[in-house]
Structure formats: structure tokens, C-alpha cells
Amino acid sequence: MTGTECYTAALNLLGETLDTGAYYEQFALGALNQLLINSLREINALRTAQREEPFTVPPRLTTLEEEIPADSCLVSECFPYGLAALLVADDDKAKFNWAASEYAERLLCHCPAQLTAVQEMI
To answer: Which of 17-21, 37-41, 48-52, 79-83 tops mean pLDDT?
Structure first.
């Protein structure tokens, strides 16, 4: 999925079109890069499960026309919700809360394992 495809899907979730949601386009690239940073743990867990080298630094998009450098299922199922949340964060708290919640729940489904620190109990 390209950044443009993800942006279009996010607009669709928000009930916007490319025309009515044109204001948000200026924020889409930065928001997608923020999602890549926020999802690095899950992206790397999937890469490790697929026997690929994990990223040492979060990948970045330089244009919306690029493919999002993460697992295609993760990107297509989670990123539109995360992008939608980030795009309306300052404008519509209800839509933000809904989209952010959907993003978080869907993201949990794509992490093969969750690592937690071992704590000694006394």
C-alpha cells in the first residue's frame, strides 16, 4: 500500500473525499512517518517472525507515492485508522478517539508476541 492509498483510505474512514478532505493532505506524509515510528515494535516483531532483519531505525517515507515499508497486512488493516486519528487530532476529538482506539486494537492483532520484562517477586 502506498502512502496515497493509505491517505485515501483514511479519508474514507473519516467520511471525506479527496476534494472535501484536501486540507489534510499537507499533514499526511508526516503523520505516516509518525505511525512508522510508533509501530516500530510491531513492524520489527513481524520482520523477525518472517526471518527478516529488524529495522535499527524507523523507516521513512519521502513521498506519498512510495510503498509503506512494513508488512502489507499490518499497513492495510491498521495504518488507515492511525492516519485518520492523527489527521483529525486537533479538529474532532470524537473521531480521533474512535480512530485511535481502532488503530490500537488492530495493531495488537499484528504483534506475534509481546515482550515484557521479567520482574522478581519477593
So the answer is: 79-83
Contact assessment for residue 78 and residue 39, using Cβ atoms and an 8 Å cutoff: yes
Longest dimension (CA), the chain: 61
Rounded-to-integer distance, Cα 15 and Cα 7, Å: 12
Q: What is the pLDDT of residue 119?
A: 78
- Does the pLDDT value for residue 94 go beyond 90? yes
- Those residues with Cβ within 8 angstroms of residue 90's Cβ, 6 or more apart along the chain or in another chain: none
Alpha-carbon span 5 to 3, nearest angstrom: 5
Number of C-beta neighbours around residue 83 at 10 A: 27
3-state secondary structure of 58: coil
Q: Record the cell numbers describing residue 94, joined without a space.
A: 470524537
Q: In this structure, what DSSP letter does residue 54 have?
A: P
Reply yes or no on whether the pLDDT at 114 is more than 60. no
Q: At what angle do helices 40-49 and 72-87 cross, to 10 degrees?
A: 180
